[in-house]
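Predict the 3D structure for this chain.
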Amino acid sequence: MKDSYIFDKNGFLKGLSEYGQIILGIVIASIGLKAFLLPNGFLDGGVTGIAILLSKKFDINISIILLVVSIPFLILGLYKLSRRIILKSVLSIAALAILIGLESFPVITDDKLLIAIFGGMFLGAGIGITIRNGAVLDGSEILGIYIFDRFGITIGKTILGFNIILFIITALVLSVEVALYSILTYIVTAKFIDFFIEGFEDFIGITIVSQASQIIEQEILKDLGAGITVYKAEAGYGSTGEHKDRRVIQTIINRIHLRKIHRLIDKIDPEAFVVEFDVNNVKGGVLRRYLDPKNSKKLAVQK
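Done. Predicted structure below.
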């Protein structure tokens, strides 16, 4: 009973945290729209961009258009996303529409470059926080998922194509200048969405195959304090022919230490095979301790 209570309590707290962060994301996104983009007629990409374009062209309340335009994409999402995500997304989009209908801000700046950059930053941060917690504020992502599952076209390509069409229409209906600034806004928004989904910490994974793997392992632990995972490779082929009984090292470090680990490997085995790959998120393990220099020595190999 006690374990069950703890599980339910943890689940409740996790859900409360998720919805709290979603609310924060909605507020931040609404500031980007209402304080920067909407008063100056700038667009973002995706469904939000369509709503802004229609609102500006036909002088209709942006909140109403945002809700109406989002409906087809949410219906499409019912076939590819869980009901929990759809429910969160419906509530999030509705909350965003209500909030931008109620909010009012004084003019912060008339500089178009600042409007595009900071509007994109706030909107991207808000959307990123919301997506990270299992909700969608823009239906173009749902369209991308649907087309990927149906036709195999990547989500990124679908969203890019969607926005190219939107910005061409913007140039024709409004002006080329508005379209260009809207493209800048979209680029900033997309970058900040990536930041908040993937995290600000810049981690990189490294796989190392070397005849001197045991020495490299010890030096990584001693000099970097980074945790490692070792795989046993039974056979493989390289420039010197067939390789047997090799140890494959895998570790994750902060990118700032990339040059250091390369120097370490080159010093021990210049012919080592090294593969680098981006890491979007990490949790637990010794990595967090590795980031604290005080603890790095504790991870050295014990002889």
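The domain at 203-299 is CATH 3.30.70.120 (Alpha-Beta Plaits).
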